[in-house]
Specification:
Order of helices and strands: HEEHHHHEEEHEEEEHHEEEHEEH
Oligomer: single chain
CATH superfamily of the largest domain: PAS domain
Number of domains: 4
Shape: elongated
CATH topology of the largest domain: Beta-Lactamase
CATH architecture of the largest domain: 2-Layer Sandwich
Strand content: 15-25%
Length: 394
């Protein structure tokens, strides 16, 4: 009896141990298989999602391709069209089936494509075609072109029409075969408008140039014939241009003899290009006229009708009174300044003579023993001397 019990105990323990080993093995297998199953499911779901995303992107790209306002075509290595959008079909006036597999010259009825039996690309004019060379170079080297201009001569029913185009190329596939995306725009009307605007602009420019020429001639006439001495001077004090006043017989009475005042003024102006301490005489070093004009010329400032005096330089050391103006010419890269100078010596001497006469008259007026008064036409007193007030009963 005891032996049977021992056998049962051993059997039960063995069964429990075997069950434990089975469970442990099963758990270890599950721990290895479950991650693989999870990873497989993740890859499958991701692949499905990516395929859906790629399909969605391709669908959106196809919509953009078809609805683009520009002419768009996909061209393979044989220069054949493998896809084209709606705008390309409208421009070629052809169906999708007629366009696919054809070359660009055939689709757009290029005159060069029908001048050679071999078709598009074999005519002598094809080597000069900017569009064809650009497409061929993009397929060969992968080079992209952007917004390049060219032209297309299309023959429809014997009528040749010239199109101005702007195109771009981009390599979109390199394996298993090269494919490029060709984008074109018909800019014929835009070019015509630009040509018309350029023509109108040239007409306007011609009119403006004629008016400017007439204005320059009028200004030249005014400059040459004005009685005032006019000259153009650069920043170095050099006279660039002078009007005809120097040749006029404009004489001024000096202290000893008559002389041409403007000749003396011009001789003085010709010394301005030298340094201030290198004048013709000591007076030049302190000449306010020279200093004012040179400061205005160098600083590009202006002076309006300022009075001053200069000395002649040809042995006639008479003082010449002048009124001078300096005008800064704006937007002038050479910084040329206009100087106007007028001889007012006679006017100055006349004013001095009148003033002297007035002083003498006033002295006689005041020293007279007789009462003297001045009345206007209305009977109002304007002036009276001392004797008048001494006898006046007012």
């Amino acid at each position: 009896m005891k032996r049977v019990e021992t056998i049962l105990i051993v059997y039960c323990c063995s069964s429990v141990l075997l069950l434990f080993l089975v469970i442990q093995f099963t758990l270890s297998v599950l721990l290895m298989v479950v991650p693989v199953i999870i990873a497989t499911c993740y890859v499958y779901l991701s692949s499905k999602h990516q395929k859906h995303y790629i399909g969605q992107v391709e669908k959106e790209a196809k919509v953009l391709f078809d609805k683009s306002p520009s002419i768009m075509m996909v061209i393979d290595e044989s220069s054949s069209i493998i896809d084209a959008n709606q705008k390309a079909l409208e421009f070629a006036n052809s169906s999708y089936e007629e366009v696919i597999g054809a070359t660009g010259g055939q689709v757009f009825s290029c005159v060069s494509a029908f001048s050679n039996p071999n078709g598009c690309g074999y005519s002598d004019q094809c080597d000069e075609c900017v569009l064809r060379r650009s497409v061929a170079n993009s397929l060969l080297s992968g080079k992209a072109y952007y917004q390049k201009k060219g032209e297309l001569l299309s023959s429809i029913d014997g009528l040749v029409r010239r199109y101005d185009i702007r195109f771009s190329t981009e390599l979109i596939s390199d394996y298993p075969s090269k494919r490029i995306l060709l984008t074109m725009e018909d800019i014929t009307e835009q070019v015509k408008k630009e040509v018309q605007e350029a023509y109108e602009h040239n007409e306007v420019v011609n009119v403006l140039e004629d008016n400017l020429l007439k204005s320059n001639q009028q200004l030249e006439t005014i400059f040459e014939n004005t009685p005032t001495l006019l000259c153009l001077m650069n920043t170095k004090g050099e006279i660039v241009k002078m009007n005809k006043t120097r040749r006029e017989e404009k004489y001024t009475m000096g202290s000893s003899q008559r002389f041409n005042a403007y000749d003396a003024i011009i001789d003085c102006l010709n010394t301005f290009s030298s340094e201030m301490d290198n004048g013709c005489n000591a007076y030049c070093q302190q000449c306010s006229v020279k200093q004012d004009i040179m400061n205005a010329v160098k600083n590009h400032d202006s002076i309006y009708r300022k009075e001053g005096s200069i000395l002649s330089h040809k042995g006639i050391h008479d003082r010449i009174y002048v009124v001078y103006s300096v005008v800064s010419i704006q937007n002038n890269p050479e910084r040329i300044t206009l100087i106007a100078m007028e001889d007012v010596t006679e006017h100055r001497l006349a004013r001095k003579a009148i003033l002297a006469r007035e002083i003498q008259y006033r002295a006689l007026f005041e020293s007279s023993r007789d009462g003297i008064c001045l009345l206007n036409m209305e009977g109002y007193y304007l002036d009276a001397n001392k004797a008048f007030f001494g006898h006046c009963w007012l």
